[in-house]
Design a protein that fits this description.
CATH class: Alpha Beta
CATH superfamily: Formyl transferase, N-terminal domain
Order of helices and strands: HEHEHEHHEHEHEEH
Radius of gyration: 17 Å
Oligomer: single chain
Number of helices: 8
Number of domains: 1
CATH architecture: 3-Layer(aba) Sandwich
Strand content: 15-25%
Strand order of the largest sheet: 3-2-1-4-5-6-7
CATH topology: Rossmann fold
């Protein structure tokens, strides 16, 4: 599958070209994808800026990364995330235009999806529709792929809806699984794809919002 959203640098309005879409990254872990997204955003011609990093784990490594880079960050517990407008209020106050999930393990509730229609992206470490759904994340995915005997794996980037991993696909990339590869080997190959392609796809989608 080819990238659906590509950069559009055709605007003749300098103010429009220089505008950056403000994104919030939701992450639950150490944030390796968040870091690659942030590094990409520093390019002069990127269409987005990492304006906030949000986690559902108070001790997540991604929050330490945000602190080092002086990126606004916030922890939200389950009650705030699912039973209030607290997260939406924070996103609005931060003037967020787009949300990017990068290893975020909770299902995004309807109230947030309604505020950001077709403006929430997720990355999944497998070739959907295979190996998706509740409980299929990280090592669980790679172990399942390894057990299946598949000769390829990959990653999928899609818009978020109210079901795990069922939103409209935007982009997929695959890698071959070598004989004797372990689940950890598969994870490493897939992560390389994620780091390479996710920032580019985010930039392409952001270019449509500028």
């Amino acid at each position: 599958m080819r990238i659906t959203y590509v950069r559009d640098m055709s605007s003749k309005n300098p103010a429009k070209r220089n505008k950056k879409v403000r994104i919030a990254i939701f992450a639950s872990g150490r944030g390796s994808n968040a870091q690659s997204i942030y590094q990409y955003s520093l390019q002069k011609d990127s269409h987005f800026k990492v304006a906030a990093i949000i986690s559902n784990k108070a001790n997540a490594g991604v929050l330490s990364f945000a602190k080092r880079k002086k990126i606004a960050s916030q922890f939200f517990g389950r009650n705030a995330f699912y039973n209030s407008e607290t997260v939406i209020d924070y996103l609005r106050k931060s003037k967020i235009d787009m949300v990017v999930l990068a290893g975020f393990l909770w299902l995004v509730p309807d109230n947030i999806i309604k505020v950001f229609p077709k403006k929430i992206l997720n990355i999944h470490p497998a070739l959907l529709p295979n190996y998706g759904g509740k409980g299929m994340y990280g090592h669980h995915v790679h172990k399942a792929v390894h057990t299946s005997g598949d000769i390829k794996s990959g990653m999928t980037i899609h818009f978020v809806n109210n079901r795990y991993d069922e939103g409209q696909m935007i982009f997929q990339s695959q890698c071959l699984i070598k004989d004797g590869a372990t689940p950890e080997d598969i994870a490493s190959s897939v992560l390389n794809l994620e780091h390479h392609f996710y920032p580019q796809v985010i930039d392409g989608v952001a270019s449509r919002l500028v």
